[in-house]
Design brief:
The chain is mostly helical and 122 residues long. It has one domain. The protein is 51% helix and 11% strand. It has three helices and four strands, in the order αααββββ. It has a two-stranded antiparallel ribbon with strand order 1-2. It has a two-stranded antiparallel sheet with strand order 3-4.
């Protein structure tokens, strides 16, 4: 019954995706001792569980992804401990800056149509 309570990843990629989503949830949170301990736990889990499992399964791509995630997560801790903001998130197991993707301005135009249908001009 307690096994249903915890997330059980199917393979290394699934585990890395799950840790990536967890990391993106707290990346901008205020730094506390509990958060640092939780972060260290996730880093240790990648180092001791996911990386050896990926190497044992012969998944070279997942080994590289795990190493990139480790580097990003360790740099996050250094940056946040120095008091700087971490301007980005993790996407596809790599650091992605907030200004890396283009932003499009939208202006909704009210037409003469009925209902909530509105056109958008980019």
């Amino acid at each position: 019954m307690t096994d249903d309570r915890y997330y059980q990843p199917k393979n290394a990629k699934d585990a890395l995706r799950y840790i990536e989503s967890l990391f993106n949830q707290y990346v901008q949170a205020p730094l506390t001792m509990e958060l640092v301990a939780y972060h260290q736990k996730l880093v240790k889990q990648i180092q001791e569980d996911i990386l050896p499992a990926a190497e044992k399964a012969g998944q070279t791509i997942q080994v590289e992804n795990a190493k990139q995630m480790l580097a990003t997560m360790q740099s996050w801790l250094r940056i946040r401990m120095s008091g700087q903001p971490f301007a980005g998130k993790m996407h596809h197991f790599k650091f992605e800056a907030d200004n890396a993707k283009p932003k499009f301005k939208r202006q909704v135009i009210k037409g003469r149509r009925s209902g909530g249908h509105r056109s958008v001009r980019h």
